[in-house]
Amino acid sequence: MAKGKRSERSHPRWVVKLGTGILSTPAGDLDLPQIRRLVQQVAILEGQGLEIVLVSSGAIGSGMGLLGYRRRPTAIEELQACAAVGQPQLMRLYEELFSERGFHVAQLLLTYLDLDSRTLYENAQKTIEHLLARGVFIPVINENDVVSYEEIKFGDNDRLSAHVAAMVQADKLIILSNVPGLRERNDDGGRIIPLVERITGEIEAMAGKTRSERSVGGMVTKVDAARIAGSAGIPMQIADGRETEILQRIAAGESVGTLFLAGGKP
Ligand SMILES: Nc1ncnc2c1ncn2[C@@H]1O[C@H](COP(=O)(O)OP(=O)(O)O)[C@@H](O)[C@H]1O
Ligand SMILES: N[C@@H](CCC(=O)OP(=O)(O)O)C(=O)O
What UniProt keywords are attached to this protein's entry (predicted)? Predict the structure, then answer.
């Protein structure tokens, strides 16, 4: 049994997924002030005793800027080159910002195969537990885009974050995006659904694809993530990562964005 079993832990644990949309500017560069604000929020919550595992996108988007792509390339080797260039930039930035607050980052790059093999899954699980037990390391997970190919890739970090939440037996999965939640219709005027008790066909029909050049999945993969997390008993919340102190507000129990219950539980 994993050491971090939910019932045996004294600290609540969240997995927080940061999407490309909130990590980058409309021009495609990493959005430094925004990332700084998110790091600050995570560091404050960590300091208050919450354990946080980050799942961060942004490698391909960041690499695209550096390699001079205006649009997301389609060839696998171009995408992989973007990830190879962008991932270290991203981690360097996280390390710089977290170290200002007394924390360090720990990078885990996973593929679908790592979660499909019991040994590799348990290795990743034990590594995260070990890091969390040390108190000052923030695991930052991304898909290992450089070696992933069609048959073995998640392709989106929404579902990956839900599998990670199940792996670490998180109390909650939080998906921070650049939309305020699941809208009734995929346009800026659509009403936000505050609570999803059960993922019905009606909910699925609301979820559309992304409108962004750099992101993947849109709301479709976020609803998939809610289903994966829910089946592991983990509630999931989607909120706008650009809203002021969004993580603190969620921690305070404020009703923001869309909360997907897991088996009726918040
Ligand atoms: N029902 C919906 N409610 C809100 N956003 C939606 C919906 N359907 C599709 N979307 C799209 O989901 C996108 C957000 O997801 P995505 O771009 O993948 O962000 P991230 O990079 O954070 O994963 C937005 O572009 C939005 O247009
Ligand atoms: N692994 C990719 C992210 C893929 C992804 O899911 O992106 P997003 O839809 O922005 O969360 C990257 O780092 O660019």
Answer: Amino-acid biosynthesis, ATP-binding, Cytoplasm, Kinase, Nucleotide-binding, Proline biosynthesis, Transferase
R_g of the chain, CA atoms, integer Å? 17
Write the residue with the smallest CA distance to atom 24 of ligand 1. 210
Q: What architecture is domain 13-260? A: 3-Layer(aba) Sandwich (3.40)
Angle between the 32-47 and 76-99 helix axes, to the nearest 10 degrees? Answer: 50
Q: Looking at the DSSP assignment, which residues form a beta bridge with residue 137?
A: 104
* Residues recorded for the chain: 266
> Which ligand ends up closest to the CA of 178?
1
Higher pLDDT, 150 or 265: 150
Tokens at 140, concatenated: 């930052």
**What is the distance in A from the centroid of ligand 1 to the CA of 135?**
33
Ligand with smallest separation from the Cα of 140:
2
Q: Is 145 annotated as a binding residue?
A: yes
* Mean pLDDT along residues 170-186: 96
- Residue 150 vs residue 96, higher pLDDT: 96
Is 157 annotated to bind a ligand? Reply is yes
Distance 125 CA to ligand 2 centre (A): 21
Distance of CA 218 from the midpoint of ligand 1 (Å): 4
30, 58 in Cβ contact below 8 A?
A: yes
Domain ranges in the chain? 13-260
CA distances from 66 to 77, 172, 213, 237, 259 (A): 15, 34, 16, 32, 36
